[in-house]
Amino acid sequence: MASAFPKLPGFVPTQELDKPNFRKVSSNKQDKNREIKQLPNKEYPVPHKQPIQIPSQTGMFNPDYLSTTHAMHLPKNTTNDSEELYQPSWVKMDRHVLRFSGFFKEAVVESALENYRIRKLTIFYYLEDHSISITEPKQENSGVPQGAFLKRQKVLRADGSKTFIIPEDFKINQDIEIFGKTIRLYDCDQYTREFYDGIGQPQEQSFTPQPDFFETKTMTKYIPQKDTVMKDYLEHKLGGGKVTSQKQFLENDRKVLKFYVFSDIEYVLHYYLADDTIEIKEINSANSGRVPFPMMLRRQKLPRKFSLNQPGQTYAEDFIRPQDIQFGQPLIIYNRKFAIQGCDPFTRNYYYEKFNVDFPLGGQEELQMEQRSNIIIPPHNGIGDEQDSLGYIYRLQPKPPKKDFFKWVDNQVNLRFLAMFNTTKPEDKDRVFVITYFLNDDSLLIYEPTVRNSGIPDGKFLEKRKYKNAQNNNEFFSPKDFIVGNEIMINGWKFQLLDCDEFTKKWFAENFK
């Protein structure tokens, strides 16, 4: 009997999948294998059909026919009963997937934290061609390459029957072996349950697998509980914290009680009524022989009792209040005694009005640094800014001179003048200069334009800075000194002002009428 099997090179779909070699097989045996193993896929009743996505019919010649999908040659308004009757299995079961959740236990060696790891998997069974794909959800810092666990393919049963796994092999709370991995199924989605109810094989109830050490100790996120007492304690410890009453802050802002206290040396204690905080400052005097250390205690709330308690055990009502500071009684601050010697007039009036207590005045006043009148200011050597150089005379560590910010912002204007040397030297009498006066900081800049074949380098002639007018009691130059036609002396050079630009003329007309 002649075989109807096509004799094409390499086209042998009936070969055994687990066969290690590929020797030639007679046509009779191929026909027998074809009848046994190449059977069509079994069809199952599906719970509900997936809706067909109908593409847009705009621009088509005949809108009564579809342009894509499997039923591309069928009319759009036909009934679905006749279609399903003659549909092949790969069309009827298209986009119908069963989803199971499973896990298997994997041993972990050479680890002091865990002995095994529970690896959870998601199994997809495609009813279209009875293929299987497996994915593993990714876990943060798991140390295991996760994601695609098994590519989509048909999987043989592990019992040696040389048949593929079918939907009846999946049962919750039972094991299934896939390529040597024994996977315990513990859950499935709602569509999968409806599918098995339709074929008369309902699935068992789902259960939660026992977590491993990695999931309980590493992946379990700690949800901190809000501790308002601890938060208030830490905020006050850092010098912050909420004011108990906004009215207290508004009524007592910038009101400070000042006490003179003594503990081995004189100190000044400030009590801020706005937030009930206290600071202690040293009274430094010249040639006292002590290293000046301005702050004895930084500004903070002062507890009545000092002890090494657990964090959060010191509450707001345990801080010192103004009524706790009394004359004649020592004030204990962090186990150190401070004798109160007196207060200032504002503190005395506050105690008399608030508590009807006559708090005595007294204490050593803070010594103010006297202005030294014997400082001899040397003449400026012309290097740098004079105001900047004076900082080294008044202070050992000079501070930069303060600039008039509003003048700098409001006067971003430059006045330009044309000038030339007022001299009889033949090489200099024809030299022309551009003098720029900056109104924001009263500085000057002199620039010499380029003259070809003059032999004189062009460019900047005088650096931009403030210069003094020797003809006006060494006062700094002002716009009044720049009058066209007059002669001015800048840094020892005599210039004759010839002209100015249009903006400068307009500015002088508006400001010097």
TrEMBL record:
Record's GO cellular component terms: axoneme; mitotic spindle
Domain DM10, first and last residues per copy: 94-200, 253-355, 411-512
Coiled coil regions, renumbered to chain: none
Species of origin: Paramecium sonneborni
Main location (coarse class): other
Listed GO biological process terms: cilium-dependent cell motility; mitotic cytokinesis; mitotic spindle organization
Residue ranges, annotated region (Disordered): 1-58
Pfam families the record matches: DM10_dom
GO molecular function, one term: alpha-tubulin binding
UniProt keyword terms in alphabetical order: Cell projection, Cytoplasm, Cytoskeleton, Repeat
SMART domains linked: DM10
InterPro entries, sorted: DM10_dom, EFHC1/EFHC2/EFHB
Subcellular location: Cell projection, Cilium; Cytoplasm, Cytoskeleton
Name of this chain's protein: DM10 domain-containing protein
